[in-house]
Structures are given as structure tokens and as C-alpha cells.
Amino acid sequence: MHLFLQTVMLGVLIGGVYALLASGLTLIFGVMGIINVAQGALLILSCYFAWLVWQTTGLDPMWISILAAPLMFAVGWVLYRLLIVRVRGAHATMSVLLTFALAITLEGILGVIWTGNFRSVTPSYFSQSLRIGDFFFPTAQVYGSITAVAVLLVLYLILSRTREGRAIRATAQNRLAAQLVGVDADRVAAFTFALGAATAGVGGAILSVLYPFAPGSHYLWISRLLGIIVLGGMGSLPGAALGAVILGVAETLTSTYISLKWATVVFYVVIFVVLLVRPQGLMGTRLREDVQA
Amino acid sequence: MKAHSTAAAPAGNAGPRAVRGARWAAAAVVLGLALLAALPALGINQYYQNMLLLTFLFCVLGCGWNIMAGYAGYVSLGQSAFLGIGAYTAAILAVRWHLSPFLVAPLGGLVAAVFALAVGLVVLRTRGHSFVIITIALLFILQIVALNWPQLTNGSTGITLPLPPFKKPWQTAPFYWYMLALAALSVWLSAWIRRTKFGMGLIAIREDEDKAGIIGINTTLYKITAFMASVFFTGIAGGVYAYYLTFIDPIGMFNILLSVQTVLVTMLGGRGTVWGPVLGAFVLEPLNETSYAYFGSNQSHLVVFGLAMMLIVLFLPRGIIPTVGDWWAARTAAARGADGSAQAAAAAGTAPGAGAAGPRAAAAAVGEEDSA
Prior knowledge:
Chain A is mostly helical. Chain A has one domain.
């Protein structure tokens, strides 16, 4: 029982980080209706940024994650203005192919600069664990989860309290109506994409401590994140959070009770099962275009 | 139903000139095939045989992908999963049954089609983005299963196939001919589908799935059938490719890079056209070899592929064949000048929009790309 509780709580902690990582992907889908296949690559880009800064300055990765947010926001903004805006309004396949191409390019560039070897950021608390009551948790995981949840709260405040945030939510609910009341759809899309990249910025810096990464790791992460937002309901932020926690727990349970090597399969199996049983996910309505108004 | 009218138009007013043109085209295809088939006998060296063999492989992959992505408008990013399925099926059966992989390769095609059926039943009942998501998932789930199920797949150690019995200088030729035959069959299947009511239905689905359903197309049945057709020859090619390599492992066989190249080949040549993937394969594979020779490492290769795909999506979204076809149509229309035929006016009308060649223009003009 103790092991079970320990496993579930660790799963919830991991789910907190996953929730942050998935928030950007689901936000971009909700507002723009495109699957940003490059989200995983942006994440890995930020991992390398954190690794580089940590190596040169020794700054704590959790602080680097705060640094990475505005930087990746800018990267996202530029990518949108340079690339994504050109396929707005085209067949949905074009945006998938373009972001896929972007992901491969980023993977290649990172690989050329830092080779395909696995890296990880190892601050002093890297291999320590924290004792809370009767339970032990990896210190880095606890810090990472706290940072992730804090950033998610900021994201929530941005979406609910600021003018830009309200414009984003309005566009996600009904683009045409949002435009009718004066929302600049193009500006909102750029802001959303940049915000999505910023969440990848924070998430990547956190990940750099928690998991070893290589340029090719983005496939694993985009698959995980797709599993999460398919489960939660694509475009739904609360859905992504719920899906993240469920999958975090499912993953730790699998690795504790079955085998570590099957843990990632959970995500793929969930994708299949959800699409078979409930294609709109737990809290979404937007995966199927045909059920949209 | 723009696709219907534009595609039907050439068939509708097929004069003697068009018939003669079609005969010439058919003769050219037969001649080209015969020439390609004769090359190993004419003694071209192993390097070029290998390059052409891989070109044929990309033809098979591209033509298959094109049926789903080009005709029906459903993009798969995991097409190489079916190459892996075919390779593993052929390898496992050949080793267990002590048969030539050549003989069991067609079973790989069947197994791939069964997988496509299963995946199709899960996601193709609905519309939208689930297909692209599941194709990525499928590739990686198969890779993990192949890694972690050593009883079936020998895990990360991989499977060594029986050594081919062919003597020098004929060691590559049988693979070459097998792959050439598969490429020819793939083009034939793709062209045949394009001509039938089934193919028209797929294009209707791409253009507007709701309306396609309304006019009585069983969209689910059409999409699943198309998906199975799009992976069948890929599965067979997997077996031949595995035998050619004589060794397969999960990382090499469930390789996303092959999916990338499949997409690139078809996008470059012209999505939704019969000959687009063929042209793309013949352009890309030699470039592939050259870029390996120049850049060496896999990583810079990725940059080249990624940038190429970006440039194609942004500046040549319809691919070479439709773009050049429109340019040619505009040119001949201009040459015919003021003779005022309706056809010339129509061609000139569509050409400037396509000339702007932004993805948006492509979305608007997507119906016309099939007339090429």
C-alpha cells in the first residue's frame, strides 16, 4: 500500500510537469486548429538552452526556466511571423507538414552543434531525494513540479485576466464571433503560438534536469504530449491538466508494477483507446471537425 | 465538386489527338520500364543499381502515401511503419519456415494491410486530426514492441536473414527487378484508383468530406480501403528491402527518416498526381546520395530534409508536376492567343492564381492539380 501511494504521488508530481508541457500544444490547437508537431522540438531546444546556461554560469535550472520563457516567447513569435502565418487558411495538412519540417530542422541543427549524444543538467540536488512524511521524492522532481504548477497558474492568470488572454479564449471558442467583436485574429494567433513556445521554454528547462535529452528526443515528447491532449480533449486546457495527471500516474504505475520499458507505451495505447471509445477526449469537443457547429 | 468537373473534362472531349497522346504516353512508359529492367543486364555498376533500387523503393513509398495524402487528403507521418511491418513479417517467416524472403514478402503486404484496417477502424470513422496523430503513435509503438518482444522480433539484436544465393555480378539484380516490379505495380495501382469512381470519391473526400458523404459516398469505407491500398505494396517492399539489407533491427526499420523522405518525395513531385511520387523519387534519391557524400553525418542530413520540406510547403506546395503543368497550359494558351477558344480562356484564368503559388492559392486551386 505504501509503495502504491508513493507511486501515485510521484505520478501526480510528474503529471504536473506534463500539464505544463501539454498546455502549449493544446492552446495552439484550440486557437489555431493546427497540431504543432514542432512543440517537442521547441522543448528540446529549451533543454539545450538550459544546459548551455547551466554549464557556463552554474545557475539553477529552475531559474533558467524563468529566463527561457521570454526567450522562447520571442522564438515562437518569430517562427509564427516567418513560417506559420503563411499556411494560415491553407488545408490543415500544410500546417502539419510545415511544423513537422520545422521539428526535423531543429533536430538536425541541434545535432550538428551538439551531436546526437544524450545530455542532462545535473545541479547539486540532482540525485538527492526529499522526505515528506513517510514518502521519498526526487528533489529535482519536486522542484520541477512546483515550478511547473506556478507557471501554469501564471498562464491561467494571463488567459483569464489580461485582454490578450481573453482574446485567446474568445478565439478558441468561436473565431468568427471573436473577429466580429473586434479581435485581431492574426495577432491572437501570433500571441498564442509565442505563448505556447514560452511554455515549452519553461518546460524544457525543467525537463533538462529530470530526463536525459538528445536532439532526437522530441519524437518521444511530442508523442507523449499528443497522448495527453488527445485524452484530455484537444484544445481544452483543463483537459490537458487532467490528462497529464492521469497519464503521469499511469506511467509510474506501469514502471513500478509492470516494467520500465513498457511505461512509454501507455501513452500510445491511450491514444488508440481514446480515439476508439471517446474521440473528443475527456473534456473536449474539438477533435472531430464534424461535431463542430 | 470542382474536382469532378475538371478531371472529367479531358476525358469528355477526348478527340483523336488525345487518344494518340495517350498511346504515346503508354509507349513511353513501357519503353522506360524495359530500359530500366535491362540496365543490370547492360552491366551498370553496383553503385547505380543500388541508387536505382532505392529510387524504386521511394516510388513505392511515395505512391502509397499519395493515395491517402494526395487523393483523400489524410496525411500520415508514419508511413515507414508499414515498411517495418513488411520487413519484420518477411524476416520472421523466412527464418521460421526456411523459405526465401522473396516468397514470403507478399505476406508482409497482407499483414501491413491488416494493420491499416485495424488503425483505420479506430480513426477513420471520424474526420479531422486523429489520423496524423495515430500514424506518429503507430510508428513508435511498433518500434517499442519490436524492441521489447525478443521472442518474436529478437529485440534490439535484430534479425539476420538468410544470405541471398545470387552470384556476382548478379548479387543486386534480383532485388532491383523485384523492387522495379513493385514500383511499377504501385504506379499502376495509383493510376487505376485515380481513374475509377473510387478515386473520384477519395478526391471528393479531400475537397469536402461533408458534401462527399451527402452525395452518397461511404466515406469511412472509402478511407479505410484507400489506407489499406496505400500500404500494401509498401509492406511487400519492406520484405524485399529487409532481404536486400540481410539484417533488420527496430531502430533501422521503424525509422521516421524514411517517413520524412516519403513525404518529401511526393510533395516535391506533386501531391495528388500519379507521376508526382515517381518524379520526386528520381530527383530526391540521387540528391540524397550526393548530400550523404558531401555532408556525411545523419544530423546535417536532417537539416537538409527539413529545410527542403519547409521550402516546398511554402513556395511549391503543389509540387513540380501541377506547377509546371499550369505554367505550360498558360504558355500554350498565350501562344494560341486570340483564337478565343473557351479552353484557352479557362487555362489562362486559372494560371495566374497558381503562379502566385502560395499555400493559400494551392488550397484554392487544389482541385486543378489532378488534371496534370
